[in-house]
Structures are given as structure tokens and as C-alpha cells.
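Quick one: C-alpha cells for this chain, please?
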Amino acid sequence: MSQIDIKSPKHCAKKGLNLNFLKKKLFKILSTLVFSILSLILLIWFILHPAKPQFIIQEIDVYQLNFSSPHILNSSIEITLEARNPNQRVGIYYDELQAYASYKGQQITLHTPIPPYYQGQQDSNLISASLVGNGLPVSPSLGYELGRDHASGKMILVFKFDGRIRWKVASWVSGSYRINVNCVTILPLTPLNPTGYLSSKQGTQCSTDI
């Protein structure tokens, strides 16, 4: 007679227990490895502590800012902005940047895309943008506000830069972060030429939110 090998319930339970033990041990090892890698990344991040990029307006040239009707505005503005990376160990990728101008809380130019670029550690770059708005519908009260500003001899324009940035440390590149830059500028006006060419050398520090 051939011998039949029958395993007892106790033996099967022991085998199942061993499999569960191996699964738990493997899960513990993987969890520890993932936690260690994340902790290392966070440690490097906090040691480097990247600072926000800084933006300063260098020059503004207003070629056109007038109304073709009480609620239709035409504008043409050139702006030069200096972008600075204050970090010693962190580079910055600028992606999907767009610029536009607003006056009295209303957008007066279309969104102008700015080509993406990389900025090395403690580097600075000049960004130039041509902001144009032809036939933009605006509130009729905007013409009244512009007349008041001409009478006072100055006007306040706000330039906004929106996009995304990525941090670069050695060969590691972070995910993208939203960046919003607001530049409030005061332009002098002359009553002799209220709608003509305006130019202003600035040095205005912009606020940056990430």
C-alpha cells in the first residue's frame, strides 16, 4: 500500500501563520524604506530651505492708454522686470509664466506668455514683456478715474505675473508650485500730454506668493 501523507490542521495553521508573518515583515521593511527616503528628502529640503525668488521692476514704457469709446480701452505697455534667485544651492525652473496689467482693479491688457527658462543659484535675469490690449471692454467709470489721475499728476498701475516654478537641487527636481507676483507702480503724468508716451525708471520691489 502506498503511504498517504495527510497534514494535520495544526500543521496547516502553522504554515498560514508563517506566510502572514513574512507578509507583515516585508510590509514593515518597505514602510521603513519609504519613510527613510521621505525623511531624507524632507531633511535636505529643510536644510536648504529655498527662499522665494525676488522681482523688481526696472522700467515701464506706456505707449498707449486711451479710450476709443466710453467703455473701450486701448493700451500698449512695455515692462522690464528683474528676477533674482537668492538661493545658494537651489536653482529655479520658471514654467507657464504670463503677464498682464491692471488699472483700478480692471485688467487693461491681454495675458502675455513669457518663455520658460531656468535660473541658476543666485542668478538674476531681465524679463521683458509687451503688454497690449486693443478694444478691451472696461467699466465706463474707468475713463473718469483716468481723468482724475491726470489731474493729480500720477496714476497707479498693477502688473501681475502668474505661472509655475520648480526647485532644482543637484539632479533632483521638485514638483511644480503656483507662483503669483504683484508689482504696484506709480507713474507720473503730465497734463500737457495726457494720452501720449510715458516712461518711468522704477526699482519697485514686487510681492511674491508661492
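The chain has a mean pLDDT of 83.
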